[in-house]
Write a structure and sequence with these properties.
- This protein has five helices and 13 strands.
- It is an alpha+beta fold.
- The strands form three sheets. It has a six-stranded mixed β-sheet. Strands 2-1-5-4-7 form a five-stranded mixed β-sheet, with helices on both faces. Strands 12-13 form a two-stranded antiparallel ribbon.
- The longest helix is centred in the N-terminal third of the chain and has 16 residues.
- The radius of gyration is 16 Å and the shape is globular.
Length: 196
Amino acid sequence: MQDPADLLIAFEEASETPIRPEYAEGAAIVPSRPPDAHNHAVGELTYQLRAAGLRLVGMGNGYRAAHKDGRTMALLIPDFYVRRRKATELDESYRRAHKGWYPIDMIALVGEVTSTNHETDTGPKLRTYASADVPFYILINRHQKTAHCHSDPITPGDDPTEAYYATEVKVELGRALPLPAPYPTLETAPFLEPPE
C-alpha cells in the first residue's frame, strides 16, 4: 500500500502551480490557494494568540496523525496552531522519517478557516483532529459566517471517522469568540474586514 506522504509528494511534483496537498479519511485534499484576505485574517488571529503571551503559535507546518497500528491516518497543514512544546530532537527525527510531517501530538490548539470547500474543515478535518485528541479546534466558517471553539474530543470505538468534539462554543463572525484559559478571547472581526 502506498504511503500517503508519497502520494502527496507525487501530487506536488505533477502540479504546474504550487500546491500544499493534505490527506484525511483515505482521500487526498488539494485546497485552493487562499486569497490575501484569508492570509491577512489568519495572521491577525496568530497575532492575538501571541499577544496573549503564547509563544508556540505558528502556521505552515504539516502534522501527521497515525492509526493505532502506526499507519498514516492523516496529513494536515492547519491554518494556525498552538503547540504543546518546541520541536525536540525526537520530533525532528519523526519529521525526517515521515517525509516532512511532525507528530500531531505536538498540537494543543489547532485552527482552520474555511475556503471554497468548507465541508473539508467541517467534516474530515474536524473528525481527524478529534480522533487525534487535539484538545481545541478553532473553526472560522466563512460560508456560514460563524466562529467555533470545539473542545472535549471523543472517539467512540475504533473508527476515527466517528470522532467528534463534545463541546462547542459558537458566535457570529464579527463577535468575540471566548476560549478556555490559558487562551484569549479571539476577535473575529478581521474576517469581515478587507485588509488595509
